Every structure is written in C-alpha cells, then in structure tokens.
C-alpha cells in the first residue's frame, strides 16, 4: 500500500490520509479482509504524527470502511459507496450555490465546464 499526501493541499492532513486510504480501497490496492499496517508505520511513511493517522482511521471506522480489533489490528471491512461519500458534499455545494443565487442547473453547467 503506497499512500502519498499533497503538502500544497489546503485540507487538514487527517482528511488527506483518510482520502488516500479510501482511494486505495476503491482502486483495490487494499481489499476487504486485508489488514492495514500499524498507525505508527503509516505515520512514519507519510511523515505525519501518529495521532493524525489515528484520527483518519477513526473517521474511516465511523464510515464503516475499517474495523479496529484488539490484538489483530485494523482490517478493511468494505469499499465506500461513492454516492454515499459524495452526496453530503453535493448538498453542501448546492447550498453554497443557492447563497450566491445559483440554481442547480447553473452548478451542473459549472461542473461540465470544469470537466
């Protein structure tokens, strides 16, 4: 499992770590049933604090992607549902667009323009 972070990314490091693990699961680099390396090893490989990695792993646990098992480490239990992951972000985008007077069709046009 090769994870990388973009230090120019403005998102908090724990979100970047969680995103990197999610991506590895979606791309089948890590499959359900696989065990993740210890948080210390992930932190050392990424050059971040172990608490940053633990926060990301707790977030993934809360999403139902990994489970913590005492004595067995952290295992992948499932792949993320892209719709479930993106839906809250889409709703937030639409809320922000409405604040600026844009309609959903305007947001769709912006997305098509950006693609």
UniProtKB/TrEMBL annotation:
Q: Where is the HTH gntR-type domain?
A: 11-79
Q: Which UniProt keywords apply?
A: DNA-binding, Transcription, Transcription regulation
- Which InterPro entries does this one have? Tscrpt_reg_HTH_GntR, WH-like_DNA-bd_sf, WH_DNA-bd_sf
Record SUPFAM superfamilies: Winged helix' DNA-binding domain
Q: Looking at the keywords, is Lyase present?
A: no
Pfam families reported for this sequence:
GntR (PF00392)
Q: Which GO terms describe its molecular function?
A: DNA binding; DNA-binding transcription factor activity
The record ties this protein, via PANTHER family, to: GNTR-FAMILY TRANSCRIPTIONAL REGULATOR, HTH-TYPE TRANSCRIPTIONAL REPRESSOR YTRA
Which named protein is this? GntR family transcriptional regulator
Q: Which organism is it from?
A: Thermasporomyces composti
The taxonomy runs: Bacteria, Bacillati, Actinomycetota, Actinomycetes, Propionibacteriales
């Amino acid at each position: 499992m090769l994870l990388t972070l973009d230090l120019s990314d403005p998102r908090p490091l724990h979100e970047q770590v969680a995103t990197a693990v999610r991506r590895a699961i979606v791309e089948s680099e890590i499959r359900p049933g696989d065990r993740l390396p210890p948080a210390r090893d992930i932190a050392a490989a990424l050059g971040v604090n172990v608490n940053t990695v633990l926060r990301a792993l707790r977030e993934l646990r809360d999403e139902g992607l990994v489970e913590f098992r005492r004595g067995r480490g952290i295992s992948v239990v499932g792949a993320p549902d892209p719709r479930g992951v993106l839906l809250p972000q889409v709703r937030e985008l639409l809320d922000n667009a409405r604040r600026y007077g844009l309609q959903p069709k305007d947001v769709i046009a912006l997305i098509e323009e950006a693609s």
